[in-house]
């Protein structure tokens, strides 16, 4: 149990650091391209948050047969429902 809590803490710290760097990097790209932060948020940050779902769905559909396809479809539908709310 202690090991799992340690992994959770390390994962949370890593996620926090990576997210901060991602946002700073996106802001730098926006400044270099001279686009508004709204456009940057909609495109770069939007893609960054959707990329893991795309990878999971693609790998599941390609490697797991019918169950993987069902997992990929569930992931797609679930993420779209979550985005609508």
Structure overview:
It is flat, with a radius of gyration of 17 Å. The protein is mostly helical and 85 residues long. The protein has three helices and no strands. The mean pLDDT is 85. It has one domain (2-84). Residues 4-85 form the Sodium/calcium exchanger membrane region domain. One of its GO terms (biological process) is transmembrane transport. Keywords: Membrane, Transmembrane, Transmembrane helix.
A few lines on this structure:
The model has no long low-confidence stretch (mean pLDDT 85). The protein is built from three helices and no strands. It has 85 residues and is mainly alpha-helical.
Furnish the topology, listing elements before pairings.
Layout: H1 2-33, H2 37-63, H3 65-84
Name some characteristics of this structure.
flat, 3 helices, mainly alpha
Helix percent band: over 70%
What integer value in Å does the Rg equal?
Answer: 17 Å
Approximate strand percentage: under 5%
Largest sheet: none
Q: Average pLDDT value? A: 85
Order of helices and strands: HHH
The first-to-last residue Cα distance is 34 Å
The oligomerization state is single chain
Structural class assignment: mainly alpha
Please work out how many helical segments DSSP would assign.
Answer: 3
Uncertain segments: none
Total individual domains: 1
What does the overall shape look like?
flat
Number of strands: 0
Organism: marine metagenome
Subcellular location: Membrane
InterPro entries: NaCa_Exmemb, NCX_ion-bd_dom_sf
Domain Sodium/calcium exchanger membrane region: 4-85
């Amino acid at each position: 149990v202690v090991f799992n809590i340690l992994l959770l803490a390390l994962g949370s710290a890593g996620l926090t650091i990576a997210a901060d760097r991602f946002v700073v990097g996106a802001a730098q790209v926006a400044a270099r391209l001279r686009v508004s932060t709204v456009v940057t948020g909609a495109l770069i940050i939007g893609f960054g948050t959707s990329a893991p779902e795309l990878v999971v769905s693609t790998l599941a559909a390609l490697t797991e047969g019918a169950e993987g396809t069902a997992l990929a479809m569930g992931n797609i539908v679930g993420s779209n429902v979550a985005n609508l709310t």
